[in-house]
Amino acid sequence: MAYPAAQHEPSYPREAHITGPSNHHPASSLLLFGATGDLTKRKLLPSLFALHEDGLIAPDLRIVGTARSELTDKEFCQIAREALHEYLPDDRKASDKITSFLEHLQYQTLDASTVEGFDDLATKLGDISGGLSIFLSTAPFLFEPTIRGLKSAGLTGDHIRIGLEKPLGDNLASSAVINDAVASAFSEQQIFRIDHYLGKETVQNLMALRFANMMFEPLWNANGIDHVQITVSETVGLEGRHGFYDDTGALRDMVQNHMLQLLAITAMEAPADFDATSVRDEKVKVLRSLRPVGASEMVRGQYGSGAVDGKSVDGYFDDLGEPSGTETFVGIKAHIDNWRWQGVPFYLRTGKRMAERRSEIVIQFKCVPHNIFGDRGGKLNANRLVIRLQPEEYVRLMVMAKKPSMDRDGVTLREVPLDLSLTQAFSRARRRIAYERLLLDLIDGDPTLFVRRDEVEAQWRWIDAIREVWETQEVEPKPYSSGSWGPSAAIALTERDGVSWNE
Description:
Layout: E1 29-33, H1 38-53, E2 62-67, H2 73-87, H3 95-102, E3 105-109, H4 118-125, E4 132-136, H5 143-152, E5 160-164, H6 172-183, E6 191-193, H7 201-211, E7 225-233, H8 242-267, H9 276-288, E8 298-308, E9 311-313, H10 316-320, E10 329-334, E11 346-351, E12 358-365, E13 384-390, E14 394-402, E15 413-421, H11 422-425, H12 434-444, H13 453-472, E16 478-482, H14 488-495
Parallel strand pairs: 1-2, 1-4, 2-3, 4-5, 5-6, 7-11, 8-16
Antiparallel strand pairs: 7-12, 8-9, 8-10, 10-11, 12-13, 13-14, 14-15
Helix pairs in contact: 1-2, 1-12, 6-13, 8-9, 8-13, 9-13
């Protein structure tokens, strides 16, 4: 029986639109702590300008900056103008747009270490019955006095939400102190813990790749996947973060937050819905299933002198100005003890002054069970899925294809890429930095891409156990040359399993 053609067939490509929960209401005011700091100048102000330029924030949204510096509204606006001219792309520096954006901005001087001054901040904010979103970026020792100050000034009501930028402690105990302080004034539903990797479009596309395409799910487990690699590498050194970085190290700076979030999204079960509760419930299950790491499954490293991008660079000792046992590289062989991932290693590595700037997830599938082309000379490679987050964004599936020929001398198979370049596929869509999405979600009140307290605690338990192994077994950082892929022990970490890093 022939069926009639469907009427009004949608044109290709079809798009499925996901709308946020209807009970989220945009705030009428945004309060930025650390308004004169580097993060605000480089990321927050350009992100807020982009949202303004595209009409994504209300024309009457008030953005109040606060910091210790004694500034007037006009002086703060001038600082913002200079930051936008420095950090915006040239094609987005239209003076009329910048001028209209600056009309959103106000400023209030505040010493957050004392409750004095918070009443003046509340007066500056004025009527916040329409909702207030707070972006709190501050040193860990200022979290408690800042929360006390907000509470004393009546800036902690049900219509207020607070975004917390890391660092949120340096272990489970200190993280709990900060979280307890914030919880004394805000409910968990009001707290938005920020991991800017979750705002990256490719990270969100990882969920779409997994849960909007039937083809991957049957293989996305121990039956189909041999191993997973997650790499976050940088070519830079300390870049002015000497004190903070030496007290923190690569494990706490990168693995505890960014890399474990990437691992959780890669390994999570399908959530019941794309909402904050469902997504974060599944992520925390993964984090709680992480097996403690043994000494033979981890590598610490510290960069020495070498060459990056053809230029000679100093080692960590020279950059810091004194000897240090802080790691600038971490390699880990992780395991998730659940049914889906039993026996599948997750190899993690991150480091500074490495060969390339790269953030990626590599899914290495198992090989087909039988090579029918073997007797005719056809050699197979297992399929590999590469999800690149930076510097470029793409999803690349490596598949086997037959080289065109008459095959009289045998069959030649070659690995070829099937590429989805997000830049090309969505060429008309504006590429956004992570903070644009996160700031908009903070203003709108959508917590899906923010980190819940039980996630943070599960991450810290695993990280604290690694640091305990380092301390009890005196695991010292191994040297590696700047411009390399880390210590030789990191290569051995995978090679002894017959695995090579994707380089």
